[in-house]
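User: Hey, quick favor. My workstation is busy. Could you predict this chain's structure for me?
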Amino acid sequence: MTGLGDPRVQHRERLRAAGVYFVTEEGLSGGRTSVEIAAAAITAGIGIVQVREKLGTARRALQIAVALRSTTREHGALLLVNDRLDLALAADADGVHLGQDDVPVATARAILGPGALIGLSITDPAQLEMPDVCDADYLGVGAVFPTDSKADARYTGLELLAAARAAVDLPIVAIGGITPENATAAVQAGADVVAVIGAIAGAADPASAARHLLEVVAIARRARPDAAGARR
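Assistant: No problem, here it is.
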């Protein structure tokens, strides 16, 4: 059994409460580094950062993750790596975010350890019935809205968020095309947290953009009919 003293449970609940989840992508950061953007976002209150860097190299992604490790710890934020278990281990990250074509969640946990925070992308309602869902710590659902950051993203709309919310008690992260203008709709549909790249990385003032998104999501969560459930 696991309880509130378990590191994995603690990480899961920190993620659920985070509101906004920043995903790095140096190629979309307007000539600035991902370390610079993420550090500004963390200082502004962002509680979870995923190093993604699909447009760069694995070596650069590792450099970014290692550089952000001390910053995330200093501010009590979580650090995840997209897909790559080897980079997560090398950077001593808190966990990974996996897609449907990556290694099974149970395999990732066996490699990273029982305390690792492991997220799983969901792009179709049928995937909610798969064994990986039972092993995951949170679900990343989407692309909820059209997005430029992933050329092959499948647009799922808000319906999949609602289906995921009805199916699981795990934290749900809305992914894909999230902006301050549509974040409320994602939360109302069932998301606990919204994941963004461009809304922060592409902003002239990333810290200000992060604070604004955090405020939008906090208001939306309080207004949700199941607001008590959103804080489970």
